[in-house]
Amino acid sequence: MGPVAERRPGMALLLLAALWLGACSGDPRDNPAWTLGGEPGLLFVIKQYYERNAMEEGGLCASPLLEGVTRSRVTEEDDRLTVDLGYYYTDMVRDGDDCDRFRLLRCGVMRECQGFAERTFVVGRQGDWLRVQEMSGERKGRVWQPKPPPWASPPETPSAASGRSDP
Q: Smaller CB count within 10 Å for the chain: N or C?
């Protein structure tokens, strides 16, 4: 087998990896899976905020993952959206994979976190992007907000709106 034939599997794998990464990138507003209540990208913003700031089951589930939506209701007032969300969650740490015959004690201590819950989110519009302003339910001590995506224009500041520039 020549050197060209030996490189083909590697090139094919590299091409496949590039295609896979390309499918994962992009604007969540363009993906209909992230649309909630007719608002493109709304579920993506809520999921990011929830997974960084929420806790479940009295703090036992400190790394929850929003796995699915069971129901949603979105109401709009001015530039704020109120989202009542029913969802299914699991936990990144307490996911039940610690239970095997060699870790019987750990399985009892590290019980699996999963369940159905409901929360209300208040999401505001700032320029071209959405930002969670409030979330009901248990939360971690500090609040984490994602940075605006590169495609979003930043919200206008009062000095920019008046045409002045501050020193």
A: C
